Amino acid sequence: MTKRVVLLGPPGSGKGTQAVGLAQALGVPAISTGAIFRDNLARHTPLGEKAEAYMASGHLVPDEITNAMVADRLSQPDAANGFILDGYPRTLEQVTELDALLQTRGIELDLAVELTLDHGRVVERLLHRAEIEGRADDTEPVIRERLAVYRKATEPIAAVYADRGKLASVDGHGAVEDVAGRLRNACLPPSD
Ligand code: ADP
Known about the structure:
The chain has 192 residues and is α/β, with parallel strands linked by helices. The protein has one domain: Rossmann fold (3-Layer(aba) Sandwich), CATH 3.40.50. It contains 9 helices and 5 strands; from the N terminus they run βαβαααβαβαααβα. α1 crosses α9 (176-187) and α2 crosses α3. The two termini are 14 Å apart. The model has no long low-confidence stretch (mean pLDDT 93). The structure holds adenosine-5'-diphosphate. Adenosine-5'-diphosphate binds next to α2 and α3.
């Protein structure tokens, strides 16, 4: 069964929400690098302080910080049986790092799932979320920067997993439960 999954998709594609639901369906933890950074920020930890300025401006937190955090999180016992990674890897360098990390543990990624969403809907959703959640990085100039970073650094990742025959694309439009169903179909074997 599919248990080690990377979830890809632009900011606003619903990755965070869907990662939690999919993790429950697969019985593994959802690991969101953005959520871990935000939690550290809220608790004023040294990690949060290091990440703050990057996040606030819509830029990526440097790899040495992010990679160490992910390595630590993946070594925790609840991730031994699998995981849904949300927000990592986000650069080609992080893909290489994740490969190495899994290799030292003698395991492989099962699948990368890309949530696809029209650009117009992405911006619409992010602005809507800004009103509801008030996330510090959901202001219009920062959203624009995050989308630019996504297009330049993160979008090319899907092709790497496609070349390995490990990419599934899932339509991210529509209601949360509809998207969740498509995601489960991509990850779970048919039930009969
Ligand atoms: P979104 O997908 O909506 O942009 P995330 O919650 O995934 O939001 O990430 C928020 C911020 O956390 C990013 O803009 C970035 O600053 C930082 N971050 C999250 N994941 C990574 C990562 N893998 N590498 C570097 N920075 C990251």
